[in-house]
Amino acid sequence: MILRCSHRAHRKTSFNLVNIFTMPASKTASNNDNSTSTSIAIIGCGWLGTPLARHFIDRGFTVRGTTTSRDKLEALQQAGIDASVYRLGSETDAVPVAERYIINIPPSRIADYPAKLAMLLKSIPAQARQILFCSTTSVYGNAPGRVVESDVSPGEILPAGIDDEARHGTPRSVLLQAEGVMAADSRTTILRLAGLIGGGRNPARFLAGRTGLSQPDAPVNLVHLEDLISVFSALVDQHITGGVFNVCAAAHPSRKAYYTAAAGNAGLSLPEFDETDTRGGKEIDSSALETLIGLRLSRIHP
Description:
Helices cover 23% and strands 17% of the residues. It is α/β, with parallel strands linked by helices and 302 residues long. It has a domain at 20-28 and 36-197 and 224-250: Rossmann fold. The protein has a seven-stranded parallel sheet, sandwiched between helices. The chain has a two-stranded antiparallel ribbon with strand order 1-11. Helix 3 (113-123) links the parallel strand 5 (100-103) and strand 6. Helix 3 (113-123) runs parallel beside helix 4 (172-183). It is globular.
């Protein structure tokens, strides 16, 4: 079942940073489509960063990647990544030098996340051509309805009393401050990623066998690893800079339909939902990104 929710009204609030939506994403012409001479730094080689690194290496890019753990260096180097240790906010760890940057450092367990991102941004050389920053659709909160990028702006100050809680314990206000820091650099494209699936990550594992689960009819908002790799590859190939984009599969089956099917396909115990809970949920719209890069985000099954 695919839900179709009406667009919800949204009251804009004031914020100090320039509204990035007045500066649409641009495509820079390239005299040479051969990417073999291009270097990419992936700041954060984890579940997403490492497969991205392998993808670009296979395409002939020089990839410099970072990890917070020295124990992971050897495995990354064996994959062909020029790997180094970088911890966000460190005054001694060096930021790799490259022409393009993909920044994928989750905010969880990082104090002063926006300020430390500002330190990282200052360390990126002026000659760098493109910065792709991984944010999250958690910036939108939990209000139901169709959600588009202009519903909340990087750096926006949330009204007093509004729900500031986001997933994994990071307040929405912190996520928006972080986006505001990154949006101040015109080379940055902000990507608000939906729930991550694929690459061995099956969200049904967390709900299998549970009972009384809430919101059976709410839409799921997910994006598959393979689609993410296609998105980053297209953004690099098309030299996209600037703008804010949701990254989420086009299909939005209900929580009950999706998690029941995913658990069954994986041979897990089926979850049971509270059928008396008729609340809906937000539905992330990624049509702006799909139109810009000419891709359809179609994968929905882990």
